[in-house]
Automatic annotation (TrEMBL):
<comment type="similarity">
    <text>Belongs to the ABC transporter superfamily.</text>
</comment>
<dbReference type="InterPro" id="IPR003593">
    <property type="entry name" value="AAA+_ATPase"/>
</dbReference>
<protein>
    <submittedName>
        <fullName>Branched-chain amino acid transport system ATP-binding protein</fullName>
    </submittedName>
</protein>
<dbReference type="InterPro" id="IPR052156">
    <property type="entry name" value="BCAA_Transport_ATP-bd_LivF"/>
</dbReference>
<keyword id="KW-0813">Transport</keyword>
<keyword id="KW-0547">Nucleotide-binding</keyword>
<dbReference type="InterPro" id="IPR003439">
    <property type="entry name" value="ABC_transporter-like_ATP-bd"/>
</dbReference>
<dbReference type="Pfam" id="PF00005">
    <property type="entry name" value="ABC_tran"/>
</dbReference>
<keyword id="KW-0067">ATP-binding</keyword>
<dbReference type="InterPro" id="IPR027417">
    <property type="entry name" value="P-loop_NTPase"/>
</dbReference>
<dbReference type="InterPro" id="IPR017871">
    <property type="entry name" value="ABC_transporter-like_CS"/>
</dbReference>
<keyword id="KW-0029">Amino-acid transport</keyword>
<feature type="domain" description="ABC transporter">
    <location>
        <begin position="20"/>
        <end position="245"/>
    </location>
</feature>
<dbReference type="GO" id="GO:0005524">
    <property type="term" value="F:ATP binding"/>
</dbReference>
């Protein structure tokens, strides 16, 4: 928490620190630098969308944010705290929950067993299951089914449920649309919009801008390892070229 200058005695005016911030972040795969000074700020309770064509650095940004990839320069902050160099395990302890490209669920485990993974943060399986099945009744019907035998949309519901089971401070969603039919993608983003309305902080990377812009509070356009523009979704929409963002 940061106290604002206008704070008056007896009338605290508290401004919550952003849940996640990157300042001048650089990252490389070996000798190849792919993030070349990324700045972004995700205020608490908002949806921040990172948009851009393939290879722009969206996934790498998400990997850095979740502690999976080290920075070579710059700062990563969680709730105002400089956590640069944090590991993925430490990041998850601090409430960073990531759904990677491809969903990251265990195909050869059942729905229920996949949800069990979220108990690592201390919540009881019964509570996680109850919340998951209330949100997605289909998952309840399929609780004993192997996750790999479900449809892509159902698998994404499972990935979301498992993530929510950890009560995340910030949810990182990478390319939710991958491998899903357009109608299912729309449904998934309706669900994400619902999570946002519940006040969950979300950083989402997406190649298909049109599906995510309606639920975003702020959007950023990422090209060549840099955020080249950031602002309200309507402003970013004007910047988008349907040729490289897939309409
Ligand atoms: N493991 C890796 N080793 C070397 N280069 C990589 C590796 N992963 C990604 N890159 C390169 O880093 C750059 C950024 O990739 P990144 O996956 O972050 O982009 P992206 O915007 O998420 O694109 P996509 O939507 O295709 O995943 C690309 O040029 C890519 O080829």
């Amino acid at each position: 928490m940061t106290l604002t200058q206008s704070q008056a005695p007896g009338a605290p005016d508290l401004v919550e620190d952003p849940v996640l911030e990157m300042v001048g972040v650089r990252a490389a795969y070996g000798a190849i630098e792919v993030l070349k000074g990324v700045d972004l700020t995700v205020p608490a309770g908002t949806v921040f969308a990172v948009l851009g064509p393939n290879g722009g650095g969206k996934t790498t940004t998400m990997r850095v944010a979740s502690g999976l990839m080290p920075t070579t320069a710059g700062e990563l902050r969680l709730s105002g705290r400089n956590v640069t160099g944090i590991t993925a395990t430490e990041a998850s302890r601090l409430g960073v929950c990531s759904i990677p490209e491809g969903r990251g669920i265990f195909a050869n485990l059942t729905v229920r067993e996949n949800l069990w993974v979220a108990t690592g943060t201390g919540t009881r399986l019964e509570a996680i299951e109850e919340a998951a099945y209330a949100r997605f009744p289909k998952l309840g019907e399929r609780r004993h089914q192997l996750a790999g035998s479900m449809s892509g949309g159902e698998q994404q519901m499972l990935a979301l449920s498992r993530a929510l089971g950890t009560d995340p401070a910030v949810l990182l969603l990478d390319e939710l649309s991958m491998g899903l039919a357009p109608m299912i993608v729309s449904q998934m983003y309706d669900i994400v919009g619902g999570l946002a309305a519940e006040g969950i902080s979300i950083l989402v990377a997406e190649q298909f801008a049109r599906v995510v812009l309606p639920i975003a509070d702020t959007a950023a356009l990422m090209l060549g390892g840099r955020v080249v523009k950031v602002g309200p979704p309507a402003d970013i929409e004007d910047e988008l070229s349907t040729t490289y963002l897939g309409g």
